Amino acid sequence: MSKSNALILLAFVVFTVAGGSFIGYFSIPGAWYAALNKPVFNPPNWIFGPVWTVLYILIGIAGARVWLNHRQSPLPKLWFAQMALNFAWPLVFFTAQRPDLALPVLIAMLIAILAFIALAWRRDRPAALMFIPYAAWVSFAGLLNGAIWWLNRG
């Protein structure tokens, strides 16, 4: 790997991990979230940090791969679109305290993730594979978001 490519890889990983951490800092769940009714399958709060850190590393590596190898394709645009939605979701859910509005953001994010996987599958299989755990986690998050909204509506 050239020095230039290594720097791009590092930049993508730092962007995703630091960006996710920064957004997390400004959208700490707090007392509002603690007081919500949650479904029985709601995981403990401590699990989210480690899971997102691993996912952000994979997302960053996949982003660097498509930036370096498929810059003229729609893949980088899909990557940045899902990243914008990823960073928007906690601000809508936790900061604005709007699980109802956060759900469409999450659905749009999942669509972008699945489109990325589908498009990358033939062009950059490793990048597509790195997004599969992300798609699974966001699917679970969508179920959780929907259940929290349903249990606390009205």
From TrEMBL:
Membrane topology (UniProt): Multi-pass membrane protein
Any one Pfam family match given in the protein's UniProt record, by short name: TspO_MBR
What the entry lists under InterPro entries is as follows: TspO/MBR-related_sf, TspO_MBR
- Compartments (UniProt record): Membrane
GO-annotated cellular components: membrane
Q: Which GO terms are recorded in the biological process aspect for this UniProt protein?
A: tetrapyrrole metabolic process
**Transmembrane ranges?**
7-26, 46-66, 78-96, 102-121, 128-151
Which UniProt keywords are present, listed alphabetically? Membrane, Transmembrane, Transmembrane helix
Q: Which domain of life is it from?
A: Bacteria
- Name the protein family: Belongs to the TspO/BZRP family.
Indicate what this protein is called per its UniProt record. Tryptophan-rich sensory protein
Could you tell me which species this protein originates from?
A: Hoeflea phototrophica (strain DSM 17068 / NCIMB 14078 / DFL-43)
